[in-house]
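Title: Prediction job returns without error message
Component: structure pipeline
Severity: low
Priority: P3
Assignee: unassigned

Description:
Job completed but the reporter wants confirmation the result is attached to the right record. Sequence as submitted:
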Amino acid sequence: MERTTIDIREIFKDKATVTKAELSAYIHSIDSNANDASIRQRISRYKRSGLIVSVKRGVYAYSNKPVYTHPADNFIAKLSKIFSAQYPEINYCIWSSAWLYDFTIHQPAQFFYIFETEYDIVEILFNLLKDNGYHAFLNPDEQTMQLYVMGMKNPVVVKPLLMRAPLVVNKTIKLPSLEKMLVDAYLDKRLFYFLQGIEMQNIFRFSFSKYSINISSLVNYALRRGKKSEITDFAKRNVPFLSNLLIND
């Protein structure tokens, strides 16, 4: 029988990180019948539960924080239903800028929704939302955000979804992982102009202090956006314990 996860912490208590090989060897030591497939399943369970977080390929750090859970949002459910009914095979994700406000000191009065989909479907999605009476904006610049988007009720910003972006599925609705939300909020300054500076520092500090963050997922997504060094440098400056975990290649 597999021992409790507390035993795993105790076994590696003197190590800041643990490798996949070390975890595999430990699991096999307490369960001689464990094969490669069952070991992968156990490590995946540890990651899903928030016990360990991926730092980079084959290296993990411990965490005692829960995995982020997206708040329920009926408006997002409606958007997802409209889009999926016509394009069930097309990838997408939807989220609300208000979800970031849980990590800020000052609570902005307005929020907007972000609807991302595959590049060649973006304009089709934009027209679909407009035809259904939604306040949709296609890749708005900062001026449009300030003058029009933020003044409307339930505005929807439509933009391309980067291939292999880290997503999660909740009741068939595709949502961004917290790691994607953090990277996007920092890099998309034209959309999140009102969350830069001190508030962006707060967002990173509070999210890392409250939830289990998959560092590998965050860094890899930043890499796909061409901003790995910028994100890792910002994270290390504002989340002290990351200095020992994030090393730029």
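Comment from assignee: result matches the submitted record. The radius of gyration is 20 Å.
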